[in-house]
Amino acid sequence: MIKMAKTKYRFKGKMKSARELVKLLQSRKEIRYSRRLRCYYGQAEVELSGIKVKLFFCRRTRNGDWTGLMTTNTKLNFFEAYHIYSMRWSIEVFFKEAKSLLGLGKSQARDFASQIASISITVLQYNVLGTVKRFKSYETIGGLFHEATDGVIQLSVTDRI
Q1: pTM score > 0.85 for this model?
Q2: Around 144, how many Cα atoms within 13 Å sit in the side-chain half-sphere?
């Protein structure tokens, strides 16, 4: 991710900020809409400190804020970059939640096997809690489904897993 700030990129011989690049792409009609991802996107190949990079800009709504992604792999298209970033983001969310809520990295054991066991237990806890959340927050829509689920016996969490 890049900040949409004052950092200047060399685009076709001229120094431009990320916001200026977006405006230039809009004026050239190079911003497209993706039905698959339901977002507007654009891309530009630029130089940053003498290194060729590719910038991707994305926003969800017509009047939303632009976000930027940067990669040194100039052969990527927007969809590949978005997919890679979404995988990376889910890993970041896992580490944040595991560290703050489940105590990942707080083990003070001196034995290597104990540290590995602590990490493994934390990952298992995260997976079990994710499964429970998925089943508990699932709600069907419509009267037909509501009537059909009224008579069904609810399984316990351990039976569901």
Answers
A1: no
A2: 0
